[in-house]
Amino acid sequence: KQPYHTSALSGIGWVNKLLTGHPHRIRCELGVCRHVFYVLLNLLRDSGCKASKYVLLEEQLAVI
Fold it and tell me: In the chain, which stretches have pLDDT less than 70?
C-alpha cells in the first residue's frame, strides 16, 4: 500500500497549502472549490461561529 496523505503539514498549515495551492487540489481534498470554501467560511463567521482555543475556523470547516 502507498499512503495517500504524505504531507508533513498538519492543521492550519495544511489548510493554507490547500487554499494557496493548485485549485484542483482543494477540490479533490475537500470536495469544494476555493471560492465555495471562502463563501462557507464567511457564512459561518456571519452566523457567529469562531475559532476555538486551539483550532481556527478554517481548520474546523476543512474537517467537516
Answer: none
